[in-house]
């Protein structure tokens, strides 16, 4: 189906079985906690034997070139089968015509071992393949790489900021409405500040890992000739396209399998060195090859969120009503890459203003690829915008929530389009009430023992994205339903919500539904990224189920609009009903479904919204900042599963706390190395950092988004969360820190 | 990871006779470093079967802690909780429950620095590769030292436990191979145990090759108050930016006895007894505390100048540790004085 109009009342609204929204426990949970959900590194496919292990050798310098690689000692090391370098990669590697397009779409890291050029520190320059993992690691240390560093590399965003060009692709970087300069000049209240956010790492738990198998054309292997990658990827269709482009294959000759993904946060939207090297090593050795990237290499050889520098100007009348808003930002990426961190994205849509100026620039930096990390754009953009709004509230002596209410737009501020649905005001009011916002004092007024206490709030917004998606459902003679789509579950709960949707649609008990994911042989799907997964893939499953319902009604000779599906039976709504399985002939009944989003979606501005509230304590002696409690209230349209949605929201908020307080991936500007490359030094929040945290979801539906009337929940939690913490810090001690993360050294002068 | 020989010692003599071997206890530090190819021992002797896992209440009031006593066990031991709370607190402020269940007393003393440049084999490090130079200088130094460092090395010793032991004047008992068939024992005051880097930062302790730590002995308990205060960038599972271990006895508003060791700032727990004796007999006035802190921080040096990690971001440098250490020493002493 295609979205062409607002969706009327449908089976999801009726929710006869009550499954939509239900806190159904994760259906694959028992498999995961008992170790029976094999992640990429743990698969042992039947009949696959003689698996070799690969271990990459990272470049010891930033930008530069390889002079020579001495592999003799490594090759002679016990168990070593091959050492790959740019000299002996398989034929046809990194030369196909499709590669340029895949790179432009940021579908993969820069091709590795493609030439003597080193694009960045830690980029793999060789890969050792051995009989055991330990042998590969030992031999990798024996590879001697002579390289020469480029004399003028670019590692520092600050110094490259001034020459940074307009990004050559991606969403339009600039926007202008009215005359910002003139309007700003005459405003009674003005905020004019710059901000910086450091590079961040997605830091997902499961390392990128791949088992690569070439099914030789001459063999009797049913899959031949084909490359199979058991890998960890968020969008297997993208991986298929990129791997095919890289190895000069037809798409159909590449099979990607990612049924279980241990987190991605954007990092697994690209094809990473594990997959590339495993495929190449398997080709060269003629045996299956397994590679998992070790943690230090993950920080330097995959991708990261670019650092940003931001400049925000807010001009308002004396009542705080915005008249002029400008948000400029600078980020960086490898030369020729079009992806940029669109940190001004939300400023186009959040507050009403007659004059708006958006400018985004992207410097060429010789660091690891910059790519998506959970809520690319908003996650760091709101750290600046919402800090500036808090400052404006203080300047105008207006309550921060009241300030937001005064600037609530009626239509999209940038384009004037209607909103599909926007319940931000409700989030603000409900949150203020539940959190006890009225108890907030003036800055520096509240303390408990050694702790200075403060409260802060910030708004959340994340543009709602949709992508075409497909699904297939198969009802078998035993009454069980199989749902197949190439969609992935990256820990978010996809298996569970698709089970709920399918079971609800066909009146089945969830235990009668099996969902199979992460396989490029299944109907192509949206995959997991940009918070579009649940809405897009769920709608495809909905559509497939609608088609199956029509088939079943036809078989049962019941008019489709009168058919009632409940308890595994189809009925006419009166007396007549029969089990679904009785209608299955010739083994199975199959239906496919799809969703696409045409120009209809363009007519509205769609987004998820929220309001964050945070309370922090600051130790008066040390300046240590600790989150005491946090609440987010969200408008994410229809909630498909209150447990998994909540988990996404509080997980996002936790990421926001990390961005505010501790996450800082440090590029050493001499070598271009991300130097704090382990979990002891790159500080993501731990349980003890989070305190009391909760998320409330409005009971909402958005009939313009998709047939489920849902909106993305995966990223909205991080958007603005860190700003609420920053604003709480200001409220506690009076310090307004604009260079994130806000560490104790930056507030020491405010401790008294 | 290289292939290595592995042997399990049943008695200390087995361990001592294993030539050129490295000992492995909890393995929480050594194994990580081996996986990263930073440590490359050819032989490992596993100490875990040795009967060095006891805590003995000695007749003279001292407490002997076997080298294999796990950090978790030590922290929870009733005698430690009652008599040496500063040690219990320090242990519990370190690492995570899982790590503390494995980590041993001997291994904790010998854990290696967390300098990020030490951890990256592509960077220069005089500890890893003597004479190679130090990439940390001019780089990310947030967790590096401000005291006792040298041109060759900025690393800190990351242990929390050792800082408390230093404030308690612990003694490290060891055995080392003597004449054939014999072993020698010695007792090393913890003050002498860790060495400053000078031009040989690869030599971190006074131990000789093959010397086995058998126990740590704590002197008779002290009266007064004890405190351990650790400042870190997240609430748990992070190394100290600055930590302070204090034992304090007050008498009529004046200091009767005090010991204070700083962690997170130097290649060893940092304590200056002379400054302590000058504080004795004085009230904890602003002036007295300032003089005391000045003495401990004398020569302290941050690394912001020439910082290349990001010259615009002082949070990547460690200069802030100087005022932070001062604040924490004052706060911890004043806090201890309330109960001392
Ligand atoms: C993520 C992480 C966070 C951590 N956080 C902290 C923290 O906040 N604070 C803190 O203090 N520590 C922290 N640690 C370090 C931890 O305390 C040490 O790893 C642990 O104490 C080492 O003890 P072990 O028994 O495992 O030593 P091992 O790894 O077994 O050995 C360490 C060294 O000691 C030698 N050795 C061991 N026993 C003896 C002996 N009896 N005689 C002679 N030599 C011996 C070994 O040869 C080796 O060189 C952390 C560690 C990790 C991995």
Helix content of chain B: 25-40%
Question: So how many helices of chain B?
Answer: 12
- Which structural class should the secondary elements of chain A be placed in? alpha+beta
Write down the overall geometry of chain B.
globular
- Would you tell me the overall average pLDDT of chain B? 94
User: What fraction of the residues of chain A are assigned to beta strands by DSSP?
Assistant: 15-25%
Q: Look up the CATH topology of the domain at 11-37 and 467-596 in chain A.
A: Aldehyde Oxidoreductase, domain 4
Most extensive interface: A-B, 50 and 46 residues
Give me the number of helical elements of chain A. Answer: 18
What strand order characterises the main sheet of chain A? 4-6-2-13-10-11-12
- Which CATH architecture of the largest domain in chain B would you pick? 2-Layer Sandwich
Q: What string, H for helix and E for strand, traces the elements of chain B in order?
A: EHEHEEEHHHHHHEEHEEEEHHH
- Corresponding CATH architecture of the domain at 11-37 and 467-596 in chain A: 2-Layer Sandwich
The radius of gyration over CA of chain B amounts to 20 Å
Enzyme class (chain B): oxidoreductase
Keywords (chain B): FAD, Flavoprotein, Oxidoreductase
Pfam families (chain B): CO_deh_flav_C, FAD_binding_5
GO molecular function (chain B): FAD binding; xanthine dehydrogenase activity
Descriptive report:
The complex is a heterodimer of chains A (752) and B (340). Chain A has a domain at 11-37 and 467-596: Aldehyde Oxidoreductase, domain 4, CATH 3.30.365. Chain A has a 7-stranded mixed beta sheet, sandwiched between helices. In chain A, β28 (667-668) and β29 (673-674) form a beta hairpin. Chain A is built from 18 helices and 30 strands. Chain A is an alpha+beta fold and 752 residues long. Chain B has 2 domains: 50-218, Uridine Diphospho-n-acetylenolpyruvylglucosamine Reductase, domain 3; 225-338, 2-Layer Sandwich (Enolase-like, domain 1), CATH 3.30.390. Chain B is built from 12 helices and 11 strands. In chain B, α2 links the parallel β2 (22-24) and β3 (43-46). Chain B is globular and about 60 Å long. The model of chain B has no long low-confidence stretch (mean pLDDT 94). Chains A and B meet through α5, β28 and α17 of A and α12 of B. The complex binds flavin-adenine dinucleotide. Chain B: This is Xanthine dehydrogenase YagS FAD-binding subunit. Chain B: Residues 1-223 form the FAD-binding PCMH-type domain. Chain B: It is an enzyme of class 1 (oxidoreductase).
